[in-house]
Amino acid sequence: MFSLKKLAGVAAIATAGLVLAACSGPTADNSKSNSPSSATAAAPNAGGPLKVAVVTHGSAGDAFWNVVKNGAEQAGKDLNVGVDYFSDGDPGNQARLIDNAVAQKVGGLVVSMANPQALQTSIQNAVKAGIPVITINSGEDFSAQFGAIAHVGQSEGLAGQGAGQRLKAAGKTKLLCVIHEAGNIGQNQRCDGAKQAFGDVTTLQVDISNPTDAQARIRGALQSDPSIDAVLALNSQVAARAVAAAKEAGSKAQVATFDLNADVVAAIKDGSILFAVDQQQYEQGYLPIVFLKLYKENGNTIGGGKPVQTGPGFVDKTNIDTIAPYAQRGTR
């Protein structure tokens, strides 16, 4: 068995945000995530006495969620824990994935809650079945209420405030905040936080599954209101579309974004994106596996009822050269 002394050492390093992959690091996994039907038949992977299911709302192949997956799978390898990763953007399907994991009697469950109400019954049923649950990324306000032992992520309202403060300090006066997933409470919290710190903020709803239309909608908003001098994207893929839309509109609006990918790294370097709000999602995959291992083998809890914060951090021209290699290998 993985010794508690060794585990405590890994946990201390991981909590400090310093645990990464081996020298080569994991590469982004673009394979399709399991569908609800395949999840029913899937048995947890071998790899140790503890079996954990990670069920997120991210789409298969999404750059952000690939990094979460990399973190969870690397933690499984490091700690000898069996980790199965599933994802589905439809809240009903995500709930069924959780139900499937409960039926398989997994030893631990990690869940992102973009739509908490849709997942409440499934998560509470897992807790009733004696399965420890850790929530990640979104749904922080409902985590303890649903019975989770911890939440790992960034407080979205505070992150939005930080972005708004930075844009205001950059001399911007009117902000367009682009929401790309209807019903995702975290995205509304980001824009609300930005408004608190910045002041004059207009929100725009687009659909991330239709990037061409999203770009057209951003372009239209900039053309109809030339006073907009900043755009805050809530996703790295939307950020690239916002940069293109500003160019098409002949707008001088400067783009900032949440989250990193290769395009955002390049855009920060060339100045077309001012900064990225980095929630260090690799930790959102890695740390819950550490915490579940400690909980199951040593009765440890983390956070004292408060969320374990992985962000916000900010990536701009001052630190992009340090962060870029990590983003390239799939750990930032």
TrEMBL record:
The keyword Membrane does not apply. Residues 53-293 form the Periplasmic binding protein domain. Keywords: Signal. It is found in: Cell envelope. Residues 1-21 form the signal peptide. SUPFAM superfamilies: Periplasmic binding protein-like I (SSF53822). Belongs to the bacterial solute-binding protein 2 family. This is Sugar ABC transporter substrate-binding protein. It comes from Amycolatopsis bullii.
